[in-house]
Amino acid sequence: MKNLKIFLTLLISGISATSIIVLACGGGDWDGTEGSMFAPKVIEKQSNEPFFRSSYSFFYGTGAYYENYNQAFNETNVNEWNNYFEKQVSNEKLNFWLYKANLKDVDAMIFKIKGKKELKDSLLPFSLADVKPSTKANSFLYYLGFAKRNEEFAVRNIYNWYGDQEKKEPTIEIASQIEGGQKFLSNAKDDFMKERYLFQLIRLNYFSANYDNTIKLYNDNKSTFKTGNSIQWRCMGYAAAAHNKQKNYSQANYFYSLIYAGCEQQKQSAYLSFHPQDDKDWNACLALAKNTKEKTVLWQLFGLYFDSHKAIDEIYKLDSKSEQLDLLLVRVVNMEEEKFSNSIFKKTTVMDGEYYTPNKASLSIINKIASENKTSNPTLWNLAAAYLNYANRDFKNGDTYLTQAEKGKGKTELLTAQFHIIKLFGNLYAAGEINDKTEKLLLPDVKILFDTKTMNIKSARTLFAQNWTRSTLSYLYAQKGEYEKAEMIYSGSVKNYFSDIPNIRAMISYFEKPKHSELEEFFIPIASTGKINYLELLGIRYTQVDKLDSAIIAFKQVKSPETLLGNPFTIHINDCHDCDHAAAQKTKYTRLSFAEKMFEMKNKAISKPEEAAQNYFLIANGFYNMTYFGNARLFYDNPIDFRYYYYNNSNEGTKENDCELALKYYLLARDKSTDKEFKAKCTFMAAKCEQNLWFLTRKYEDGIDFKSGVYFKELVKTYSTTKYFDEIVKECGYFRTFATN
User: Fold this and answer.
1) Domain boundaries, the chain
2) Is residue 245 a contact partner of residue 13, using CB atoms and an 8 Å limit?
3) Residue 563: beta bridge partners?
4) DSSP letter (8 states) at residue 224
5) What is the per-residue pLDDT across 268-282, written as a single tens digit (0 to 9) for each?
6) pLDDT, tens digit, for every residue of 163-189?
7) Which of 68, 231, 606, 669 has the greatest number of CB atoms lying within 10 Å of its CB?
8) Angle between helices 191-207 and 231-245 (to 10 degrees)
9) Which tens digits make up the pLDDT trace of 191-208?
């Protein structure tokens, strides 16, 4: 308990202060729920949502607490003033006067109502001249003038993203504002305006550091709050902040707990400000609670901050049906899920003994409460107990709790969805192996999980449950050697297996089988990759091993061939993919037309020897450009074996990085030519291929950028008198370094 002091760095001392530190900077597409299939929204209480577990932001669902906080207050304030005016003034007008108008605008409106001055055109759309009685509009405007002057004190400290503080010194004395506020309060005619002026006075005293008077003003005027508006909670917030400044933490925390429970707009801010210091302070705070509900709220805050298990236990003792229990439950379950990632949710470790071990306190308290069946939401507790027991590999206990949960699963759509997710999770995790019997057991819930109508519930965490189901089934089939079935259910699950031609052909044959099991029949239509993708990959692989006739046959079966971004037969001294992609292309090539053109040129090289050199050179360019190093990487882009943009050592030896074929045809082109300039060009391209082959085994720690090989030496020895030699010396830094040393 004494360790709770570490939370002080996250807290705001006064929850009603206008300046609030931004707690998190947003970024990326993550929301902190990755790896979870237990949806906390199953408790169906929106006010709890910010306190759901998130590893991404301090409050669930947002990284921009400050903006949400102010927006909520502004909307509430506008609505309350709208009620004050008995709906005569639109929210648009009120928003202008409260948050955009300056003091000159306020004065102009007062003069207009008194008939002393006309409004300027920009103020006409926001006129209050028609409000009846006019005394209401006047009361509002006079209050507004007073309040806007007080903002000089309330917003003196402004924090930017970098934590720098900008100080704005007030132009009026705070003491004179307090004196004026007391007169306004005395003269206020209705409860609404009295509450507003009291708020301004309490706030002014707080910002003048007169904490005794802040507390006294609040305590002496509690009876003033009669409208039920949010302003009473804002006043209590300043009183709490004043107690906090005086180190009267138990009273401050008690007030914060009341605000947390009573004011939706201040719930998050109250949570941030609540911070028991030690056991003595905590017990004193508990003693201030006037009833069981207040005590359960205090314990919930304790659980959110420090010890969920103890909080659940204490709340349950006080009131087994308390609504404060469910939020702590879903947080505990989601936090346990975060520990699954090294065991349950890795398909490679489902069967190897790396099992998740639950927090004993979590499992014990959830099992106890679920078994006693006394809560207001027993289905939720039984689902949570079933889930954690399954995760703990206690499948017998898990089944017992799931059977109890089934009785109430139809209460809401989300409960029903959650039931089927947990049932499938338990059955699949318990299976250990896959066979006809387990397929039949799993199939009904598999169908429900992947049914877009049944599971089309935004708050259900269906996607991860689907992915885990796919990967686990895939793993179990792969364990049996049923690689095609594993691949169909979860593409890429058997790493690199379906990169080789024989295995790709086997996968195509799998899709062409006349009969599949019921589970296969279900998954094939929703598989992420289908027969067409493997035909496409087959064509890619045949091209990469120079079997162009076979590649053409495969590509012809693909209905939507990809258009290559650049001319695959263009080559440069220095590779420039973006230049080639931006250049106008007279002929645009698809994978099929590219393979057909390559095949045509190979035949011409044989049938017309006088054109062999040029054709072999263009073929070499094609083979070069369809590697990682060329302008046609898109050629090998596919959803099964995706390596379009990336090169790293883990891809060593793959055809995407292999320039051997290009090297072969550059040398063939050179051999078939008698033109020394052309031969120099072929030799340089051979050197580039040689260099790229060296990159595949390069050790970066050596700090070597390039390694000269056979063809750099040949260029210097044989072709140094050519014009092309001079060109490559100018353009290629690697070769210039080699040639001039």
Assistant:
1) 76-159+166-268, 577-739
2) yes
3) 590
4) G
5) 999 999 999 999 999
6) 344 455 656 788 989 999 999 999 998
7) 669
8) 20
9) 999 999 999 999 999 999
